[in-house]
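Pilot study result, target chain (82 residues):
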Amino acid sequence: MYQDLAGRFEGLSDLEWKLFEDIFPPEPSRRSKGMPHGPYRQILNSLLYILITGCRWCDIAGGDMWASSKSSSYQIRLIMVN
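Predicted structure:
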């Protein structure tokens, strides 16, 4: 009776990113203390990858279009607090 609902996600296209771009705060012009966060597009790609594929945070795909699991989870927590 159980169905495998995991999907496949290969990242946002430029057109799809344009739809989401306005909901994120502007990228900081100056770097503050600590490590810079990943670009919001990479963070959103990582979050959607987790939601669509059903994988764990530690299993996020590697590459230029994905943020690290640590960066993604940290930014998601900041967004949820604000």
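One observation from the pilot: The helical segments are 14-20, 40-53, 69-81. A full batch analysis is planned for the follow-on phase.
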